[in-house]
Amino acid sequence: MSTIQELFARDPLELTKSDIREIVKVYRENRVKFQLGNMSAGKAPAKKTPTQAAAQAVTGKLDLSKIL
Amino acid sequence: MIYDLSQNSSFTDGVQTSWDSTSIKLIMTCPRKYFYKMMQNWTPREVSPHLLFGGWYATALEHYYKYVTEGKTSDEALEAVVKETLISTWTYRTEPSVEGDINYPHGVNIIKDKDGNRQGYPWVSSDGNKTRENLIRTIIWYVEEFKDDENTPVVILSDGKPAVEYSFRIELAPDIIYCGHLDRLVDYGGDNYIMDQKTTKSTISDYYFKQFNPDQQMSGYTFAGQIIFGIPVKGVIIDAAQIAIGFSRFTRSFTSRTNAQLEEWRLNTIHYLQFAQSCAEKGQDEKNFPMNLESCSNYGGCEYRDVCSKNPGIREQFLKGKFNQDTNMWDPLKQR
Fold first, then answer.
1. Residue B89 DSSP symbol
2. Strand pairing category for B235-243 and B248-256
3. N-to-C CA span, chain B
4. What is the pLDDT of residues A30-51, one digit of tens each?
5. Residue B192, strand partner residues
6. Cβ A44–B133 below 8 Å, yes or no?
7. Percent of chain A that is helix, strand, coil (3-state, to 5)
8. Rg (Cα) of chain A, in Å, rounded?
9. If both were cysteines, with which of B74, B161, B219, B278 could B265 make a disulfide (CB 3.0 to 4.6 Å apart)?
């Protein structure tokens, strides 16, 4: 499952119905939390730093079977 | 510098004859601002995030109600406008089309990488509250807040059609057309109201809503509603959204007008528009459009304040350095 940041960072023409539903679902859940008193429930998640993003890009391509 | 206004259908011989609330607000705020923006098309290199955010938000809600009226479920309509808004807030890198392309020579092609992926990037707002993520959140939360609202059904007109999506042109006086677009006319407790949405970073209170009476846009919408629908319209329902970092909060309020107030608005508006026309008839020169020195600092400061603060002799050079003057003009007669 993609995180909300990944969905926002993706080419929107490539987003599927399921992706859009996931965005709607997350924000609906955030609204419920806000209504229960969490005043920062709708805050956008912090964006990854360039280092974190680069690290994730590399780890996503690692194939341990080649070295085991 | 003379700007070519012949492509703008709202102008005749350099004089504006068709007016919407945006251009009326400009001339009422400051004739010089009207001149720079409406007649010379100088736009800041960086468009205000508040304008962009408000425009995308209004379009999304307009389309949401349109899709529901056309028969989509609320969920289907919401998913459609979320995707549309994500696309609108994304910039694709483009290059000029080449010979052989269908859109050659006027079109552009989206640049793709070696794997065929389109190249682009999301809108990054210079405002901490009015961001892309918070825009999507506000659209979704608005629909959650009001989707089951049974207090404001759309008015069904005598021809059986719902009163949604109306572009209008009304003659206020000879050579003065008032034009615009109304999203929805609703019935609230037996009275008819135009619906409108606003966004703000401020906490919404009674004081916030005081700005809408008197207000030329709200009076104009009420006036137009009475004329085009042919039924009494009491005023405008304003759904205001407070956009904070962690939440979007909605408050609904009403602003009403009497017929005497609407007639006063009409005469007042004609007075200003005839003044603008008399300025333009003297020629396309900033000297013909006086500055309203009392509005320079309103709402965080006019976007042209730095221009007007310069010596007249260097203003054009300054404008060329800090602003764009593209061919995409604001034309009130262009229907959305």
1. T
2. antiparallel
3. 30
4. 999 999 999 889 998 776 656 6
5. B187
6. yes
7. 60, 0, 40
8. 16
9. B219
Dihedral (Cα; B274, B280, B282, B287), 10-degree rounding:
110
Cα separation, B231 vs B301, in Å, equals: 40
Yes or no: say if B26 and B37 are a contact pair by the CB < 8 Å rule: yes
Query: How many domains, in total, are found in chain B?
Result: 1
Give the integer Cα–Cα distance in Å for B290 and B311.
Answer: 15
Tally of CB atoms within 10 A around B220: 26
A41 Cβ contact list (under 8 Å, min separation 6): A30, A31, A32, A33, A34, B246, B247
* Cβ contacts of B274 within 8 Å, gap of 6 or more: B173, B176
Give me the interface pTM, i.e. the ipTM: 0.89
Nearest CA in chain A to B144: A28
**A21 part of contact set with chain B, CB < 8 Å:** yes
- From B136, B144, B245, residue closest to A31, measured CB to CB: B144
Kindly report the pTM of this predicted structure. 0.89
Q: What is the CATH number of the domain that holds B167?
A: 3.90.320
Q: Which domain holds residue B192?
A: 9-39+149-279
Which of A14, A16, A31 would you mutate first to test chain B, the one with the most B CBs within 10 A? A31
Pairwise CA distance, residues B19 & B266, whole Å: 13
Helix or strand or coil: residue B289?
coil
Burial class, B61, CB count within 10 angstroms (exposed 0-12 / middle 13-18 / buried 19+): buried
Tell me if B139 is assigned to some domain.
no
Task: Give per-residue burial for B226-256: e unless 16+ CB within 10 Å, then b.
Answer: bebbeeebbbbbbbbbbbbebbbbbbbbebe
Lowest model confidence (mean pLDDT) among A12-21, B82-91, B160-169: B160-169
Closest CA to B178 of B134, B236, B230, B222: B222
